[in-house]
């Protein structure tokens, strides 16, 4: 090859290389690794609904720090529906000036100054579920706005979406967020209508699996055209979904109702079960008026550690007899979490002879062999070691309550 030919072919090679690199990197995708463990935070909807303003959001950030919740791992302060005002002549959205007179960027600065992160809400449809401006037709513009405001988390709802394809609509917003170039956790709130567990991992970091939660342990609230669901109903709807969840892509059984009026036993059971499900732990109560019992539930670090375990494996129901359910969840270092739920309203005696049980997670191929391995047992609500798996376990479990254990593989 003469030198002219060599230069020519090298130049062509270079052009091709630049083309490939540019083309490949221009593919939008979700921001990876923003939720390696289930996101933890607070959201305004369950307690405040539309009754929100910037002072409330700031007070929640203050309380998240002073209550010890930040230390326990909570990070996100998420504004839900009803923050929206109007679009300007160029189509950019602005917050409601009465509720958020200082603007969202100001709020983001405040929340960030506390070492926390700010989340916001929008909807794929023409209007949000509460009837405010939504993002349909403005996806890229809204993503730019959220990035400019330094938002860290977007919950994206599914009301008023007639004629829209869910995968397409959520992918459009994913791509818009990617182009806006700020890493933002993307929470798909499509209620499980289009099986988001089958496609959500490529689009977002978490997806709602059900309709809205209702602040009651085991009831359904009928709103006429739709229903909201108590804790046990939502729990039952998670059946079959665990294989879809893992680091950076979680099933979301909805924000929590802990501290919103259920009994303390029910709050403890609700929180424990969400941890067994490796669910996002998004609190939905008024942090300013939490009782000590509620703080103790929300900040129990060893229960939170079950949720936040690095393996990111969603737990499974092992058995169900007389409304006593036994749940297991494989953990790092060959430990296990076990949660025994008493769905009866009366207390029950529970006995578990480890030597007769065969606990196998057949999706992730992990088993606990109680015949060859002795596990130490820590009661995570009593916060003490209570024995080991060589001896049967016996407990009295109050109605609508749980016993939550960590089985610690001994190194003998
Ligand atoms: C839907 C969502 C809720 C909440 C409301 C707000 O119902 O599922 O979580 O965001 O909209 O209007």
Report on the architecture of this protein.
The protein is α/β, with parallel strands linked by helices. The chain folds into two domains: 29-307, Alpha-Beta Barrel (TIM Barrel), CATH 3.20.20.70; 316-411, Immunoglobulin-like (Sandwich). It contains eleven helices and 22 strands. It has helices spanning 3-25, 45-48, 54-66, 69-72, 104-113, 139-148, 166-180, 231-236, 264-276, 292-298, 301-307, and strands at 40-43, 76-78, 84-87, 93-95, 117-123, 153-157, 185-188, 206-208, 220-222, 227-229, 250-252, 281-283, 316-321, 324-330, 336-342, 348-352, 359-361, 366-368, 375-379, 384-388, 393-397, 401-409. The strands form six sheets. It has an eight-stranded parallel β-sheet with strand order 11-8-7-6-5-2-1-12. It has a six-stranded antiparallel β-sheet with strand order 13-14-15-22-19-20, with helices on one face. β17 (359-361) and β18 form a beta hairpin. α6 packs across α7 and α9 packs parallel to α11. The longest helix is centred in the first third of the chain and has 23 residues, at 3-25. The protein is globular and about 75 Å long. The mean pLDDT is 95. The structure holds alpha-D-galactopyranose (GLA). The site of alpha-D-galactopyranose has 9 residues, from loops. Alpha-D-galactopyranose is lined by residues 45, 80-81, 128-130, 157, 189, 212.
């Amino acid at each position: 090859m003469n030198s002219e030919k060599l230069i020519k072919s090298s130049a062509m090679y270079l052009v091709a290389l630049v083309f490939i690199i540019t083309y490949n990197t221009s593919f939008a995708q979700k921001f990876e690794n923003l939720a390696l463990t289930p996101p933890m935070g607070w959201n305004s909807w369950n307690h405040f609904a539309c009754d929100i303003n910037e002072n409330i959001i700031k007070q929640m950030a203050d309380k998240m720090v002073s209550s010890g919740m930040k230390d326990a791992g909570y990070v996100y302060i998420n504004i839900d529906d009803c923050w929206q005002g109007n679009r300007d002549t160029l189509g950019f959205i602005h917050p409601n000036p009465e509720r958020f007179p200082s603007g969202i960027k100001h709020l983001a600065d405040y929340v960030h100054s506390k070492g926390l992160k700010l989340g916001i809400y929008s909807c794929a449809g023409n209007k949000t579920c509460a009837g405010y401006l939504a993002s349909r037709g403005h996806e890229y513009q809204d993503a730019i706005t959220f990035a400019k405001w330094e938002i860290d988390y977007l919950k994206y709802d599914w009301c008023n979406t007639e004629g829209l394809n869910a995968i397409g609509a959520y992918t459009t917003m994913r791509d818009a967020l990617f182009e806006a170039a700020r890493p933002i956790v993307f929470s798909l709130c499509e209620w499980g209508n289009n099986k988001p567990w089958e496609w959500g991992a490529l689009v977002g970091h978490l997806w709602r699996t059900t309709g809205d939660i209702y602040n009651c342990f085991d009831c359904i609230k009928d709103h006429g055209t739709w229903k909201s669901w108590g804790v046990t109903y939502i729990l039952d709807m998670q059946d079959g979904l665990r294989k879809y969840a893992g680091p950076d892509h979680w099933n979301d059984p909805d924000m929590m109702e802990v501290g919103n009026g259920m009994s303390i036993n029910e709050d403890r059971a609700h929180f424990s079960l969400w941890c067994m499900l490796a669910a996002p732990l998004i609190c939905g109560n008024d942090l300013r008026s939490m009782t000590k019992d509620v703080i103790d539930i929300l900040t129990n670090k060893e229960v939170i550690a079950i949720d936040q375990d690095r393996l990111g494996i969603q737990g499974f129901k092992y058995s169900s007899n007389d409304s006593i359910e036994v749940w297991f969840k494989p953990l790092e270092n060959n430990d296990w979490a076990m949660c025994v739920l008493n769905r009866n309203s009366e207390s029950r005696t529970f006995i578990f002879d480890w030597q007769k049980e065969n606990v196998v997670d057949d999706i992730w191929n992990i088993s606990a062999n109680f015949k060859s391995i002795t596990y130490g047992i820590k009661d995570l609500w009593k916060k003490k070691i209570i024995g080991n798996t060589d001896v049967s376990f016996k407990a009295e479990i109050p109605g609508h309550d749980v016993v939550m254990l960590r089985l610690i593989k001994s190194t003998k």
